[in-house]
Amino acid sequence: MIPSTKISRERQAPAVRQTKAGLYVAEDAYEGEYDFFTASGGARKPTSSEPSPASNDFVMPGEGSGQPSEPTPEETAAELRMWLVVRTDIDMPRPKFGAQSGHGFGACLWLAAKERPEIANEYMSSPAQAKICLAAKNLNALERVFREARDAGLPAVIVRDHARTHFAEPTYTVSCVGPCRRYELPKFIQKLQLLKA
């Protein structure tokens, strides 16, 4: 019989630095780099006193009684969703796409839990936790998504890969917005096409 060993891992707070563009960037221990900003639109450095995502009180799907009913068309139109916008002008294999998507959704939900906790909780409580993938034709379009979402006061992040495995240099790959309702999105984002397989 193999003796059990308890492994203790403490998550370190991300290192935060300010970019030349004036955005505060938190570098995590993972591949991605996330640009954070406040719901009011101004970039800011996360403080050490802010709670970690694990300390927020989320209600997980399936908690409570009864089965969810089918949504009406009006409810579907107002459903909370997260929006991932992916650059289509770069070659990104599926494993890299999966990692970058995870960075985007995770960082954006973490930011939403800080900036709009009631919306984040509502999203996490929904049975669908809907996510939509859209296409950005190039870096300019991706940056515009990020800027316009910020200007609209929505939680949003832009993810930069550190070029450890696939890309030759650090590359912005995806942006994520939400959770929010479709009508809250800037018109530019609403007009983007769905990402094609």
Summarize the structure in words.
27% of the residues lie in helices and 21% in strands. Residues 1-18 and 20-68 have low confidence and may be disordered. The strands form two sheets. Strands 5-4-7-6 form a four-stranded mixed β-sheet, sandwiched between helices. Strands 1-2-3 form a three-stranded antiparallel β-sheet, covered by helices on one side. The longest helix has 22 residues, at 94-115. It is built from five helices and seven strands. A hairpin with a 5-residue loop joins strand 2 (24-27) and strand 3 (33-36). It has one domain (17-43, 77-190): Bit1 (3-Layer(aba) Sandwich). It is an alpha+beta fold.
Radius of gyration: 18 Å
- At CATH's second level, what is the architecture? 3-Layer(aba) Sandwich
**CATH homologous superfamily descriptor:** Bit1
> In which order are the strands of the major sheet placed?
5-4-7-6
Largest sheet: 4 strands, mixed
Quaternary form: single chain
Count of strand segments: 7
What is the structural class? alpha+beta
Poorly predicted ranges: 1-18, 20-68
Name some characteristics of this structure.
about 200 residues, alpha+beta, Bit1, four-stranded mixed β-sheet, three-stranded antiparallel β-sheet, 5 helices, about 25% helix, globular, disordered N terminus
